Amino acid sequence: MSQRDPIRVFVTHAFEESDDYVRVFEYLESARNFYYRNCGNVTLTDIGRSQDAVREELRRQISTAEVVIALSSLYSQQPDLLVFELNYAKASDKPVVFLPLFGREQPKLKALDGLTDETVSWDERGLVDAVKRQARHEETTRWDTIEFKLD
Length: 151
Hints:
There is one protein chain. It is globular and about 70 Å long. The termini are far apart. The chain is built from 5 helices and 5 strands, in the order βαβαβααββα. It has a 5-stranded parallel β-sheet with strand order 2-1-3-4-5, with helices on both faces. The longest helix has 13 residues, at 51-63. By secondary structure, it is of the alpha/beta class.
C-alpha cells in the first residue's frame, strides 16, 4: 500500500451519511501512512429510487473495492439493504470488516452470521490493521509502548 496504490474501501451505506459512516472516514484519515480510496458514493443523483437501480448501483460500488467495512448501525435502519450488501460482497469474494454499534453493547446479529470475516471495535488502530489484513493480507508488527518510572 502506497500513495500510488491505495487500498480501495467500501463502507456500507443507505445512500446517506450517517454518524458512523462519517466516523469511519475520520478514523481512516487520522491514521499515519495509511492510504485508501473510498469506492462508495452516498449521493443518489441520476439512478432513481427503484430497488433494482439502488441495488445495481451498490453492486457497481462494491465491485471496485478490495474490502468492505460493514456498519452495524445500518442494520437497525435498513436490515435488508445491509444483508444485500454483505451477500454481494461475499459472492464477489470481498473480505468484510464488521464494526458494532458505537459506544454500546450489541447482541450478536444472527442474520449476519457467516457474512463477516473480522469484527473490530471502534479503534482507529484496530480498524486500520483489520483493513490492511483483510484487503492486502498485510500483518502489522506494531507494539504498544508503555513508559513508566521506577521509584
